[in-house]
């Protein structure tokens, strides 16, 4: 069997689909509501480490809005997954420790998606240098 450094196009399509759907779900359900309803969110945000509502909300917005935009573009994907993974772990382990798997399934699934992307990277279908391209070589 011949070993090749390039992966089949279906792998790149799968990674792109994972990036697209995971980021759109995170943005729609968690990120954009925090931006559009900032003042209201300040009264509801959990603050498990005593940083204050403002800093906790800003951290959540970075993880749930800024980082998904980088991941959608395939730019700094592995690095951009780390704040998302951190916020999800804090939510699941510190803010909602009593949730059953069923109650926290959305958070756990997002954690699976973004941990997978942190391990694999974006694949070859990504934006680089402001121009959409299918990069040749390793993803």
UniProtKB/TrEMBL annotation:
Transmembrane segments: 12-31, 51-72, 79-99, 105-121
Keywords in alphabetical order: Cell membrane, Membrane, Transmembrane, Transmembrane helix
Source species, domain of life: Bacteria
The keyword Cell cycle is assigned to this record: no
Record localization: Cell membrane
Membrane association type: Multi-pass membrane protein
UniProt cross-references to InterPro entries, sorted A to Z: DoxX, DoxX-like_oxidoreductase
Identification of the protein by name: Oxidoreductase
Organism: Candidatus Pantoea symbiotica
